[in-house]
């Protein structure tokens, strides 16, 4: 089953098989889990006039390569904003929860444009693609990452954080309209900002994740995007970080904030 087929299956049923090729260690990549829940949220809201404003994800437990059930409940449907809760179940237990707010545009006299300016990374072709290593999580094969700033993971860097270009791997994914479900899947592929400081391979995983959407996605699946992460604080086995996502025209698309568990 492909990613697109999984999205389509959610239109007909709650229980679906997970696509193969998305393992992150022994569990399923959190971006895929979030993307599937977001697709269910979009289907539940079913209102083209309301675009995604923000979403919060909590990763309760590991998701295995096995069938899952994804349920959605509209918590409130107002004139302007609809809020929906989505849960992913496996083995009769909740493994992930997503809450998303969708809103219709409203007339407003308030206009503020102080968004973070996109870094100048040149073009994607100027940077080598991150090579896939057998010790890397399987899910990295689904994307192309061109590291343009900062050190690679597990290189004993004195400083955290990095940035670069990335896109879906065009050899594995047919080009089509880019959706907010794709974006949830997509933006989580970059590792935690502290990973360059690791001296050896060790786990680090998202605990909570909040994403705010700025400009709506009006792109194709093969389009390149820019990403840059900044770590606020890391100690005692946890890190807090935020990241920005821009398109190739330097429009800010989304702002991501995560709490990360660090096992080293």
Looking at this protein, list some descriptive labels.
264 residues, mainly beta, two-stranded antiparallel ribbon, 3 helices, 12% helix
Note down, in words, how this protein is organized.
- This protein has 264 residues and is mainly beta.
- Helix content is 12%, strand content 40%.
- The chain is built from 3 helices and 13 strands; from the N terminus they run αβββαββββββαββββ.
- The protein has helices at 3-9, 30-45, 180-187; strands at residues 15-16, 23-24, 27-28, 50-59, 68-77, 81-90, 93-104, 143-150, 162-168, 204-213, 225-235, 238-247, 252-262.
- Helix 2 packs antiparallel against helix 3.
Query: What gyration radius follows from the Cα positions, in whole Å?
Result: 18 Å
The CA-CA distance between the termini, in Å, is 35 Å
User: In what range is the share of β-strand residues?
Assistant: 35-45%
The average pLDDT is: 95
SSE class: mainly beta
The number of helical runs is 3
The oligomerization state is single chain
What summary fits the major beta sheet?
A: 11 strands, antiparallel
User: How are helices and strands ordered from N to C?
Assistant: HEEEHEEEEEEHEEEE
Q: Largest sheet, order of strands side by side?
A: 1-5-6-7-4-10-13-12-11-9-8
Helix percent reads 10-25%
Low-confidence region ranges: none
Brief account:
The protein is mainly beta.
SSE blueprint and pairings:
Blueprint: H1 3-9, E1 15-16, E2 23-24, E3 27-28, H2 30-45, E4 50-59, E5 68-77, E6 81-90, E7 93-104, E8 143-150, E9 162-168, H3 180-187, E10 204-213, E11 225-235, E12 238-247, E13 252-262
Antiparallel strand pairs: 1-5, 2-3, 4-7, 4-10, 5-6, 6-7, 8-9, 9-11, 10-13, 11-12, 12-13
Helix pairs in contact: 2-3
């Amino acid at each position: 089953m492909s990613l697109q087929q999984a999205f389509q299956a959610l239109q007909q049923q709650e229980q679906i098989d997970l696509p193969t090729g998305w393992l992150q260690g022994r569990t399923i990549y959190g971006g895929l889990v979030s993307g599937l829940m977001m697709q269910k949220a979009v289907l539940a809201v079913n209102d083209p006039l309301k675009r995604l404003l923000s979403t919060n994800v909590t990763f309760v437990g590991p998701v295995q390569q096995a069938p899952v059930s994804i349920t959605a409940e509209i918590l409130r449907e107002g004139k302007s904003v609809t809020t929906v809760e989505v849960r992913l179940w496996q083995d009769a237990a909740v493994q992930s929860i997503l809450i998303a707010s969708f809103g219709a545009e409203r007339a407003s006299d308030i206009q503020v444009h102080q968004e973070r300016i996109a870094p100048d990374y040149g073009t994607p072709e100027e940077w080598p693609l991150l090579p896939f290593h057998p010790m890397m999580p399987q899910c990295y094969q689904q994307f192309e990452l061109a590291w343009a700033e900062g050190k690679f993971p597990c290189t004993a860097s004195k400083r955290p954080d990095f940035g670069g270009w990335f896109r879906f791997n065009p050899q594995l994914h047919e080009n089509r309209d880019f959706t907010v479900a794709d974006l949830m899947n997509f933006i989580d592929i970059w590792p935690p900002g502290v990973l360059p400081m690791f001296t050896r391979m060790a786990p680090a995983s998202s605990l909570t994740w909040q994403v705010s959407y700025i400009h709506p996605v009006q792109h194709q699946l093969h389009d390149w995007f820019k990403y840059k992460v900044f770590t606020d604080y890391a100690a005692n086995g946890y890190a807090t970080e935020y990241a920005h996502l821009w398109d190739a025209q330097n429009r800010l698309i989304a702002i991501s904030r995560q709490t990360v568990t660090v096992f080293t």
